[in-house]
Amino acid sequence: MTATTYLYVPGDVPQRFDKALRSGTDAVILDLEDAVAAARKDEARGLVAEWIANCDPDGIELWVRVNPGALQESDIRAVAGPNLTGIWLPKVESARDLEAADRILTGCGAGDAQLSALVETGTGLLAAPELARAPRLRFLQIGEVDLAADLGIEVDDSAEQLLFARSQVVVASAAAGIEPPVAAVSVNFTDLPAFEADTRRLRRLGFIGRACIHPKQLAPVRTVFTPTAEEVRHAEDVLNRLSAATSGVGVDAHGHLIDEAVARSARRVLARAR
Predict the structure, then answer these.
(1) Does the predicted model carry a pTM greater than 0.85?
(2) Contact yes or no for 183/224 (Cβ under 8 A)
(3) How confident is the model at residue 21, as a pLDDT?
(4) Do the beta carbons of residue 136 and residue 105 sit within 8 Å?
(5) Nearest alpha carbon to residue 207 among 167, 247, 234, 243
(6) Where is substrate annotated to bind (predicted)?
(7) Is 106 helix (H, G, I), strand (E, B) or coil?
(8) What is the spatial distance between Cα 59 and Cα 66, in angstroms, rounded to a whole number?
């Protein structure tokens, strides 16, 4: 099953690690980058590496967001191991960044570890098609605050200023045949109806899942990305009607034309429901 909820935890707050694992999230992201002050980077790396090596994930994905630049190799080497699902790479601007991480993981014997690239600059956004085809890449993401700063754009509550960037990573992912991108975090964990509505807009754009900064955000994200009973019934009905049609097209319960493209969407709904 593809994860839909990804919960961030600061890498220098070990008392939250086990709590995150039991929060109901599909995946935990231990953050060594923005959540950790420069003076505590080495301490956080050691704490995260020790916890990952000794915990029991019990089916929960464990990701680590590492630092860019000089600290990155040390971060990856420290956390590579059997329990690690993969690495979130910040500020990726070319496939070379992912290839370098791939070589490090290979050298550590982490053959199954995956990568996710965070697109946070204009250069990275234009390279999205290239990034999507890099080794070990499971899905793309956008670091929206960093990207907005790099582009010099002002984002309002509608976030329409980010529509082009969001659509770019969705298209690049589909073209490369990788998983759809995971939506970026929102700092809103008090107005949950607004957060859910925002997440629903991202689902309609083609994102699957969302990174969260607070456990309160997990339930709305799961609600958005779990098909309703009505959506499941409609998808099943579409597939049954198309299967029974005497040609390559059919008509759904509302009198609308259905064909293989509609069937693909229906299968996607049922896959998410499972």
Answers:
(1) yes
(2) no
(3) 97
(4) yes
(5) 167
(6) 65, 120
(7) helix
(8) 22
d(CA 115, CA 139): 8
- The verdict on whether residue 146 carries a ligand-binding annotation is yes
pLDDT tens per residue across span 146-182 = 999 999 999 998 899 999 999 999 999 999 999 999 9
Residue type present at position 146: D
Q: CB-based burial of residue 183 (10 Å sphere; 0-12 exposed, 13-18 middle, 19+ buried)?
A: buried
Q: How far apart are CA 128 and CA 93, in angstroms?
A: 8
Q: Which residues contact 148 (CB under 8 A, 6 or more apart)?
A: 154, 155, 161, 162
DSSP letter, residue 140: E
Which sign does the torsion angle of CA 167, 169, 173, 175 carry?
Answer: positive
pLDDT digits 0-9 by tens, 215-252: 999 999 999 999 888 888 888 888 888 788 877 788 88
Domain positions in the chain are 5-225, 229-273
**3-state secondary structure labels for all residues of 191-233:** CHHHHHHHHHHHHHHCCCCEEECCHHHHHHHHHHHCCCHHHHH
State phi, psi for 62 to the nearest 5 degrees: -120, 115
pLDDT band, very low/low/confident/very high, at 268 (cuts 50, 70, 90) = confident
For residues 171 and 238, give the distance between their C-alpha atoms in angstroms, rounded to a whole number.
Answer: 25
Q: Crossing angle, helix 72-79 and helix 95-107, to 10 degrees?
A: 40
Segment 35-94, tens digit of pLDDT? 999 999 999 999 999 999 999 999 999 999 999 999 999 999 999 999 999 999 999 999
**18-45 average pLDDT score:** 97
Report the 10 Å Cβ neighbour count for 34. 14
65 marked among binding-site residues = yes
Distance from C-alpha of 61 to C-alpha of 11, rounded to nearest angstrom? 16
- What is the separation, in whole angstroms, between the first and last Cα of the chain? 7
